[in-house]
Amino acid sequence: MNFRVDNLQYCNWSREIFQINHDAKLDALHATICYHEDFDELQVNIRQWNKFFEENSDLIFQGKNSSDIKKAREENKTAVFYGLQNCSPIEDNIEYVEILKNLGVLFMQLTYNNQSLLATGCYEKRDTGITRMGKEVIKEMNRVKMIIDMSHSAELSTLEAIEISDQPIVVSHANPLFWHEGLRNKSDIVLKELNNSGGMIGFSLYPHHLKGASNCTLRSFCEMIAETTKKISINQIGIGSDLCIRHPDSIVEWMRNGTWTKTKDFGEGSAGNAGFPPQPSWFEDARGFDNLDRGLREVGFSENETHDILGNNWYNFYQKFD
Amino acid sequence: MNFRVDNLQYCNWSREIFQINHDAKLDALHATICYHEDFDELQVNIRQWNKFFEENSDLIFQGKNSSDIKKAREENKTAVFYGLQNCSPIEDNIEYVEILKNLGVLFMQLTYNNQSLLATGCYEKRDTGITRMGKEVIKEMNRVKMIIDMSHSAELSTLEAIEISDQPIVVSHANPLFWHEGLRNKSDIVLKELNNSGGMIGFSLYPHHLKGASNCTLRSFCEMIAETTKKISINQIGIGSDLCIRHPDSIVEWMRNGTWTKTKDFGEGSAGNAGFPPQPSWFEDARGFDNLDRGLREVGFSENETHDILGNNWYNFYQKFD
Predict the structure, then answer these.
(1) Which residues lie across from B35 on neighbouring strands?
(2) ipTM of the complex model
(3) What pLDDT digit, counting tens, does each position of A29-50 carry?
(4) What are the extents of the domains in chain B?
């Protein structure tokens, strides 16, 4: 059985999006349910998701472990797994880790761009690595089997998370730095240590992470994947599209600024290019997985390898956290 | 008019403590009202203080600005000023800074031992300096005239706070490192930059910060103050006793561990010396100010200089934030 998994989306969720993901034949989706929310604020999002699951039960259900990916395939639905792009919902309380896992949170980033209580984000000037609280939280995440995601973290913090964690970690949505000098893209050293520790990287389709941005070609993207397999095992790569479709630009402003600053921060964008950038024409939404399937074959991947990259690898990885 | 100011206490507040501080002739007290509390939890403490003020109005009232120190002297009471030893009450929201100032919070530490969202605490392995959010919050504290306190911060973070802040900052309760190698004590460089920027240091009477700990002599303490005036102006020093009297040892455990760890942390103590250490015999509570008065004269300070150290300097400093 082959699976399709998109290991990161933060769309303006609606039946339209669930239908698109269904048309894209996604068996599993890692959905971001938090950027800046604290524990109580996160409950609002979880209640909204419960409503989504109830009202769209023909298309989606909440995924809790890897068997739900199989179930999704059998029932022709998409299993939606929760992930946090920030550790803000645990606030300063390590006891929230277990509670969040019990609520179905499978992934948690230790940072979102800025310094957090646990580690350093990729936009800070200096990198502490994993903090005192961070070490404790990693231990606790290992214990309750919550996956550590360092997509938005700085280099030393990422390397230390790999080293400290007893379980493999992920970079759910980013690309290699060798291909495109995006602020969030990852170095060869990170790829090497991910490889050695059994971790995963999910390739991002967000224009700020792409060579040529919105004009990036399918061929360039797939060649980058081929090149990356020289640095990390072909069984440790997947897709984390970072699709943020149907949102107004006010959302990307909130993602960047939250409530931490009164001076406007433009993140990966700029004052002249502040909004969401347009998606490449071959990946306007998850139905672009069909183009990826074709593109990967065209750069030389076999049918099996293509299936691994488009979902089987994530499925196998999820199994470690059942 | 001469004033007595203790610029840091966290006692187990009660009428007995207010009476002791009154007997000690304290005109002003900087009282810690937070170690780990978030915004909502802090309101519980503020409500409790409102009750204290109502029930002990013959001894204390809430201080808001420097004129309240004068008023306290005239009415034979102690003006109690609020301070936070952690930035946890602003959570990840810069807008809480102004709200807290309006509630009467005059001091806020940017960190309490650990890494915070704003800066690095003195117990972390590495020091980021002031973070992206930290820079914004310093600007906002300057705007609303809230005093930056770096007592529990790491060195680079402290130096950067001095550099970034438009207003002078304080180390409300710590001693110089040259005298005692306490983890929280401050280097000559910090003293020099405090001096150059108009900042203040309040000398601590907490045994872990004292040479000889609980057996520290009054003479040694006062000689340290005399020596320190070679490094920072005699007009920029005061007392921040760090008195934590009448608490059970469970409180120091909470101060150290909050909710950030499941492994017990002993802070400045150790497994074999986990509780509150006994105060030196000459400073068992704030009435020890009389001993300081005598001790400072004995090491050569004039009457005026002694008054400056025991309160006038703090009074003058508070005036800058009216």
Answers:
(1) none
(2) 0.89
(3) 999 999 999 999 999 999 999 9
(4) 5-319
Tell me how far apart the alpha carbons of residues B287 and B20 are, in angstroms, rounded to a whole number.
7
Q: Using the structure block, give the residue that is written with the tokens 């580690």.
A: A119
Q: Extract the tokens encoding A209.
A: 């992470």
DSSP-derived letter for residue B81 is E
CA distances to A109, A322, B45, B61 from A64, in Å: 18, 8, 40, 54
For B27-53, how does the pLDDT look when each residue is reduced to its tens digit (9 = 90+)?
Answer: 999 999 999 999 999 999 999 999 999
Q: At a CB cut-off of 8 Å and minimum separation 6, what does A280 contact? A: A205, A207, A210, A214, A215, A216, A217, A218, A221, A288
Contact B124 A125 (CB under 8 A): no
Under the banding of pLDDT at 50, 70 and 90, the label for residue A291 is very high
**CA B245/CA A50 separation, integer angstroms:** 50
Residues 6+ apart with CB under 8 A from A99: none
Measured at the CA of B258, the angle between CA B257 and CA B261, to 5 degrees, comes to 55
| pLDDT tens-place string over residues B237-264 | 999 999 999 999 999 999 999 999 999 9
Asked whether the beta carbons of residue B114 and residue A136 sit closer than 8 angstroms, the reply is: no
- Give contacts of B111 with chain A, Cβ < 8 Å: none
Q: What is the overall mean pLDDT for chain B?
A: 97
pTM of the model as a whole: 0.93
Question: Which of chain B's residues have a Cβ under 8 Å away from the Cβ of A120?
Answer: 128
Q: What is the distance in angstroms between the Cα of A248 and the nearest Cα belonging to chain B?
A: 23
Q: Which residue of B has its CA nearest to A97?
A: B260
What does the pLDDT read at residue A61?
Answer: 98
> B76 — alpha (psi -120 to 50), left (phi > 0) or beta?
left
Whether residues A136 and B258 touch (CB distance < 8 A) is answered with: no
Give the pLDDT band of residue B183 (cuts 50, 70, 90).
confident
Residues of A in contact with B93 (CB under 8 A): 259-260
Give the C-alpha separation, B258 to B88, whole Å.
11
Structure tokens at B71: 């008023």
Q: How far is the alpha carbon of B56 from chain A, nearest alpha carbon, in Å?
A: 34
* CB-facing half-sphere around the CA of B145: CA atoms within 13 A: 12
Q: Is A36 on the interface with B (CB under 8 A)?
A: yes
The CATH number of the structural domain formed by B5-319 is 3.20.20.140
Asked if B94 lies within 8 A of A261 by C-beta distance, the reply is yes
Query: By percentage, how much of chain B surpasses pLDDT 70?
Result: 100
Instruction: Mark yes or no for CB contact A38/B129 under 8 Å.
Output: no
Q: How far is B125 from chain A (nearest CA, A)?
A: 8
Residues of B in contact with A265 (CB under 8 A): 132
| Residues paired with A266 in a beta bridge | none
Higher pLDDT, B267 or A223: A223
* Separation CA B166–CA A205 (nearest Å): 43
Q: How far is B203 from chain A (nearest CA, A)?
A: 27
